[in-house]
């Protein structure tokens, strides 16, 4: 089931457009990837947790540990694969967020479920769960072996044209959105989701879509800047 989990008028006004739109979008809104027929997929979920800080609405992100076997060092939403104890995508997203960032689920209100998205690299079928952080709790990298850092990133900073550009990877035909904000380099699945959410939520500002950078160069530049 996708769409709102609550009445849109029960959430803060700045979050209302996303809750209202969640039942009107489909997979094609977010990605061009669909699993080939007969492909084995692994169910997973991510928590897109919106709070409100000094700079307005923000979202919880983490940076994966550099030692992980897959997606090492990448910025992501809290989340992961479903387990037998989970009762569905919302349960998976909340459990994973607590395990990775220490967020207290009691202060989190799930408000909408987005369409399932296929991630070819990991073969995960990922369900994004939108939530309102109505009672924020302290967060941190619970297990340094899995998570290197946790941050609340302002949506206004993500929407800042100075922080947005596109990336390509030579020889692959890949092109996608990217962000550099608060010392984080965001690309791939997470950047794609954020890019669409900025638009659907009414936060998007005009930015230079002609600013296209090579992914490998951008990764090296970011590593140098954060030393």
Characterization of the model:
The chain has 6 helices and 13 strands. It is of the alpha+beta class and 227 residues long. The strands form 2 sheets. Strands 1, 2, 3, 4, 5, 6, 7, 8 and 9 form a 9-stranded mixed β-sheet that branches. The chain has a 4-stranded mixed β-sheet with strand order 12-11-10-13. The mean pLDDT is 91. The protein has a single domain, classed as Nucleoside Triphosphate Pyrophosphohydrolase, CATH 3.90.79.10. The protein starts with a strand and ends with a helix. The radius of gyration is 17 Å and the shape is globular. Strand 7 and strand 8 (124-133) form a beta hairpin.
Short description:
By secondary structure, the protein is α+β, with helices and mostly antiparallel strands. Helix content is 23%, strand content 33%.
